[in-house]
């Protein structure tokens, strides 16, 4: 992975769970990273564990958490588009795709990371994935950035096979953990489990990041 990286996700913390280690590696190598977060996750289920905020205050907290996580990962170009959480699926897909295409033309990334359509579970994830893929589909094959799709539906390996790209981010695991910690309102319960157990699933989360290529042709 050489060249500018563009990361597109709908919610704060999507990037930390899926690709923080990859982002950190990219920044260590000196490449710029642009992260577009479509919403502030204001409809997130968690108000902290134990609860420390309210529904009204949650967007402000998640904005600060996102900024803190980006500082941990070394992301300097963070763009918050201000769409409303749980409504991305109702955005006009053609318009959202056109906006992504303009963004790609501006950033000129070598690689784009987002969700993989059909295997991203949440409606906002799926809507984002479809619009990103649609934007990339319009680009000539020889000029299209590499697309690394995040897929975590339980059907993923059965239907897509083994991940096409696996990044070993063991060396970045402590920074990834710090990025996850930054999203405290959503991750505090998980992180207590990380601190108190050598859970195989948690260790995989911290040490390896899996991606799929989309069959544009």
Give the CA-based shape: globular
The overall pLDDT average reads: 91
Structural class: alpha/beta
Overall number of domains: 1
Question: How is the biggest beta sheet arranged?
Answer: 5 strands, parallel
Radius of gyration: 16 Å
What this model shows, in words?
- The chain contains eight helices and seven strands, in the order βαβαβαβαβαβαααβ.
- It has a five-stranded parallel sheet with strand order 3-2-1-4-5, with helices on both faces. A two-stranded antiparallel ribbon has the order 6-7.
- With 217 residues, it is an alpha/beta fold.
- Helix 1 (14-28) packs across helix 6 (173-182) and helix 3 crosses helix 4.
- The mean pLDDT is 91.
- Strand 4, helix 4 and strand 5 (146-150) form a beta-alpha-beta unit.
- It has a single domain (5-211), classed as LmbE-like (Rossmann fold, 3-Layer(aba) Sandwich), CATH 3.40.50.
- 45% of the residues lie in helices and 17% in strands.
- It starts with a strand and ends in a 6-residue tail after the last strand.
List the helices and strands and how they pair.
Layout: E1 5-9, H1 14-28, E2 33-39, H2 58-73, E3 77-83, H3 93-107, E4 111-115, H4 123-137, E5 146-150, H5 156-160, E6 165-168, H6 173-182, H7 184-196, H8 200-207, E7 208-211
Parallel strand pairs: 1-2, 1-4, 2-3, 4-5
Antiparallel strand pairs: 6-7
Helix pairs in contact: 1-6, 2-6, 3-4, 6-7
């Amino acid at each position: 992975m050489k060249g500018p990286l563009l990361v597109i996700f709908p919610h704060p913390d999507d990037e930390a769970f899926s690709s923080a280690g990859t982002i950190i590696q990219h920044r260590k190598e000196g490449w710029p990273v642009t992260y577009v977060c479509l919403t502030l996750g204001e409809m997130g289920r968690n108000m902290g564990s134990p609860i420390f905020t309210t529904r009204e205050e949650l967007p402000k907290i998640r904005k600060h958490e996102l900024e803190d996580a980006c500082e941990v990962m070394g992301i300097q170009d963070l763009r918050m588009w201000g769409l409303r959480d749980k409504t991305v699926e109702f955005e006009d897909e053609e318009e959202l795709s056109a906006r992504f295409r303009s963004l790609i033309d501006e950033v000129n990334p070598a690689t784009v990371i987002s969700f993989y359509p059909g295997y991203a579970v949440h409606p906002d994830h799926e809507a984002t994935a479809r619009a990103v893929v649609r934007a990339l589909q319009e680009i000539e094959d020889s000029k299209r950035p590499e697309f690394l799709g995040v897929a975590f539906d339980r059907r993923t390996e059965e239907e897509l096979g083994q991940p096409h790209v696996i990044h070993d981010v063991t060396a970045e695991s402590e920074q990834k953990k710090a990025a996850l910690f930054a999203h405290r309102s959503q991750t505090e319960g998980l992180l207590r489990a990380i601190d108190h157990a050598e859970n195989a699933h948690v260790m995989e989360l911290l040490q390896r990041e899996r991606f799929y290529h989309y069959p544009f042709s």
